Amino acid sequence: MKGRRVPFAVSATAVLTYAFLHLPLVVLIAFSFNRSRFGVQWGGFTLDWFTRLASRPDILRALRLSLVVGVASTLLATVIGTVAALALSRHRRRVRRVAEALLYLPIVTPEIVAGVSLLVLFSWLGITLGITTIVIAHTAFSIPFVTVVVLARLEGTDRALEEAAMSLGADELSTFRRITLPLLLPGILAGALLAFTLSFDDFVTTFFVSGVGSTTLPLAVYSMVRKSVEPTINALSALLVIVTTVAVYFADRLARGSTRA
Amino acid sequence: MTSRGRSRRAFIATATRAVLAASVAAPVLSACAGERRPPAPGLEPELNIYNWFDYIGPETVAGFEQEYGVRVTYDTYESNEEMLGKLMAGATGYDLVVPTGYQLPLLRERGLIARLDRSRLTNWGNLMPLFQSTPADPGGEHGVPFQWGITGIAYRADLLPSAPDSWGAFLDGFAAGKATMLDDGREVLGAMLRYRGHSLNSTDLAELAGARQDAIAAKAHLLAFMTLALKGQLASGDVAMAQCWNGDARQAQRENPDIAFALPREGSLIFNDYMVLLSDAPHPAAATAFLDYILRSDVGAAISEETGYGTPNRAAQERMRDPIPYPLPAELARLEYQHDLGSATELWDRIWTEVKASA
Amino acid sequence: MIAARRRFLRWVSRHEGSRGALLLGPGGAWLFAFFLLPILILLGYSFMPRGPYGGVESGFTLEHYRRFLDPLYLGILRRTVWLSFLCTIACLLLAFPTAYFIVRSGRRRNLLLFLAVLPFWTSSLVRTYAMIFLLRDSGLINRALMDLGLVHVPLRLLYTEGAVLAGLVYGALPFMILPIYASLEKLDPALLEAAEGLGARPWARFVRIVWPLTFPGVAVGSLLVFVPSLGSFVVPDLLGGARHMMIGNLIQNQFGPARNWPFGSAAAFAVMAFLMIAMLGVLRMTGGRAGTGDAR
Question: B188: closest CA among B206, B200, B173?
């Protein structure tokens, strides 16, 4: 966009906003390498706090659980969300409005309401809270995100390719497998990565539907944070941030690269 | 296909493979939870315990796992109400929980806890006679006494001009800005009731109104309502005076010897905690074995030495270097046990909400 | 095998309509069962009397809603709404210039977008912890202020209402940047140039052209900020020292220590009802503005 330069006030605010968004986390991660335990005096560089994490069985268990739940809910949400996106893009009818409303309802509901309502549901059905209930909950809030991402990808692809394949004699299933799916794959992967990130980082919903021995990493961080401020928590937080950054980076690349197709 | 297209395809192929690999690896990882010897005969292979935070010895659970070959899942909570709230939600999957004495009649009446199989508790005789049958658990049929303690004031002797000896210290801004009270309605309102000379189990509207007023007045001087973070904050000096349990104060003293503990002259509450077996426990045999295990003198001693609370176990006490002595009659006169509030629970909850929501 | 496949395909092509339902089925069913249905059950719970355990027992009662209409609870809701409103305004003031900056950034746009998106996905808990780390008496901000000699005693930053607000803004800001960016991006610069050519001053250009056209983005962003802030309980708990009660804390309390699920459900629904009304109000405003925007 050509034209006059951006007013200084605007640029300054923008820069400050970026600083506000990122500096606290950068500081947090920086101090996870700090040798001294208390205060913010720099006592030297160390990886001790990270290695200490590895020797804490409760944290390792939480990490393992977060990964298991993340992968399970991602697989479910990706499949269901992709299928839903396909349906939404092809069938332009009144159903679409209702479906969209249902699909996007989670976004306008405070997470605490969703969390307690799931607690109520599971209690009413007599289902013991545990890993299963967490996976169910995570899948539920991930589906809309996957749908949005895949739908965006779908709307950007050229329907002509599919029509060409069909006119050449391929049936629906082959067309889907050979043409549509590969075209969609970047979008699907991006959606999957985002679903994983949502699940890996989720706290509120998980808080209400977790049970015996189903402490995910964010729940473990919560207990630690409530208790004290120490570099071990910084290290754990750094771990969470790094996983998130990597996942979002790849999702971003996949989603963006694909629109240039 | 362009070279860019080729490399993009390769990237996507790699990414897909990675995702598939991860989804296979994760369940495998969780399955290989670690090899363990088979459980002792008659015991289930797992046990789920729900206990207060920082309320066990460092090797207690691991020791049990080794000896009995049972895998223990150990979760923690910060207040009776939190634990009860979880229990009331329905089948939780826990086997053992640690309620305070006043909840035992309640749990018993509602069939939530099971009768102990005393024949399997071979170490029962280790308990002091006064703990073998208590008002909360007559005949010792439903709970194994775990620890006992009192609520008082923990403070930094080096940061305060003098030792606080009254609950009024929270009202007159004695350590203003650096004082905290427990994040527990029964504790805070109970303290304020004792301050005015009433019972901390009062359901009298006038007395409670006074306590409410005092609590709101105290809140103005408080840094925060704090339970879990107390030890760290006392040690670092962010908090100079806190409503605190004696065991926590003792644990904090290890980090900072300037921390002292005082029982206010108006009196306070004394509590017995019991480890109980839930009636819908999925692993009752393993749970009973654990109950017997903690009654051992060595295990009991290790627990109390770590937690800093009093042990109900005579044999354990004899092994300890520096056990907390059971209160003398003069002190006991100032101490009060909590009772279940029954229908007044909602009233207390409302008052506590008012205190927390006040400006 | 091939015959089965052919039969399946014939069935599929014949049932074109129900195929849509089939594809939408799993997603719709999942969300219905694990999102809509639970909320309906929650609504039902709010009208049932409290059981002995804190759950519900059969019956119908309005007592929980009556109880919620007490000034104590309405006051908590009011304070929460006020804080969330402040948070939304603060986010708006920060996000708008930022979004504009991204739009005008040329080659670095992708990087800036990525940097704006990233906090959106980071765990809210970690971000709250980062705030604690900065704001506590022995934290970085006080340390810096003391080292610079600006203060001699640490400022009480943590456990204040300001800390809660800062935490809310920090958590919600990314949600405001993206929708506004999306709206701004679609803005045709020719419009602004034309307006300038006709003599309109910068402020007038903003009010008359930029604001109305980006209003949908602002509305979406405000929604995405206001809703989570309203239900927040971790931030007031960790940053407020458990002494600044927001409605989220009340609800969480009822489902935990206070053991009063029906009352908690009623409180949750009061929040939802408030949100619905607020959203309808905004929708009505957006409908009007969008109309103006379309009339180019």
Answer: B200
The reply to whether residue A213 touches residue B75, judged by beta carbons under 8 angstroms, is yes
CB pairs < 8 Å spanning A and C: 271
Contact B12 A254 (CB under 8 A): yes
Residue with the bigger pLDDT between B53 and B243: it is: B243
Is the Cβ of B27 closer than 8 Å to some Cβ of chain A?
yes
* Residue with the two structure tokens 């925060």: B224
Is the separation of the CB atoms in C206 and A10 below 8 Å?
Answer: no
Quote the DSSP letter at residue B120.
G
Interface contact C127, partner A, CB < 8 A:
yes
CATH code for the domain in which residue C193 is found: 1.10.3720.10
CB contact under 8 A, B12 and A189: yes
Q: What are phi and psi of A137, to 5 degrees?
A: -65, -45
Q: How far is C20 from chain A (nearest CA, A)?
A: 5
Closest chain A residue by Cα to residue B11: A254
Helix (H) or strand (E) holding B64: helix B60-68
Tens digit of pLDDT for each residue in C144-200?
888 888 888 777 888 889 999 999 999 899 889 988 988 888 888 788 778 878 877
Domain ranges (residues) in chain B: 46-148+271-325, 150-270+331-357
Contacts of B84 in chain C (CB under 8 A): 257, 259
Comparing C-alpha atoms, which of B326, B333, B356, B21 is closest to residue B183? B356
CA separation for the pair A33, B193 (Å, rounded):
48
Give the pLDDT confidence of C5-54 residue by residue, as tens digits: 777 667 666 665 566 666 667 777 888 889 889 999 999 999 999 887 77
Please determine whether the domains at B46-148+271-325 and B150-270+331-357 fall in the same fold group of CATH: yes
Asked if C125 is an interface residue toward chain A (Cβ–Cβ < 8 A), one would say yes
Taking CB atoms and an 8 Å cutoff, what residues of chain B touch A126? 90-91
Q: Please state the pTM of the whole predicted model.
A: 0.85
The domain B150-270+331-357: what is its CATH number? 3.40.190.10
8 Å CB contact between B239 and B164: no
The ipTM (two decimal places) reads 0.83
Residue of B15, B23, B93 lying closest to A211 (CB–CB): B93
Residues of chain A in contact with residue C50, where contact means CB-CB under 8 angstroms, are: none
What's the number of domains chain C is made of? 1
- CATH code for the domain in which residue A220 is found: 1.10.3720.10
Which structural domain, as residue segments, surrounds residue A121? 55-259
Q: Name the residue in chain A with its Cα closest to that of C276.
A: A108
Chain C residue with Cα closest to B219: C243
Tokens coding B167: 């609950």
Min Cα–Cα distance to chain C from A254, Å: 13
Quick one: which of B350, B95, B354 has its CA closest to B219?
A: B354
Tokens (6 digits) for B140: 């010792």
Q: Nearest by CB to C20, which of A90, A198, A225?
A: A90
Q: If you measure CA to CA, which chain A residue comes closest to C143? A: A40
The pLDDT tens digits for B39-90 are: 888 899 999 999 998 899 989 999 999 999 999 999 988 888 888 878 876 6
**How many Å apart are CA B245 and CA B251, to the nearest integer?**
10
Instruction: Note whether C271 contacts A: Cβ–Cβ < 8 A.
Output: yes
Q: Say how far apart CA B226 and CA B203 lie, in whole Å.
A: 25
Asked if the C-beta of A54 comes within 8 angstroms of chain C's C-beta atoms, the answer is no
| Confidence label for A261 from pLDDT (cuts 50, 70 and 90) | very low
* C260 inside domain: yes
Report the pLDDT value the prediction gives residue C82, as an integer from 0 to 100.
95
Pick the CATH number of B46-148+271-325 from 3.40.190.10, 3.30.420.10, 2.60.120.560, 3.40.47.10: 3.40.190.10
**Which residues of chain B make contact with A192, given a CB cutoff of 8 A?**
19
pLDDT tens digits for range B121-148:
999 999 999 899 888 898 889 999 999 9
**Which of A91, A111, A118 comes nearest C20 by C-beta?**
A91
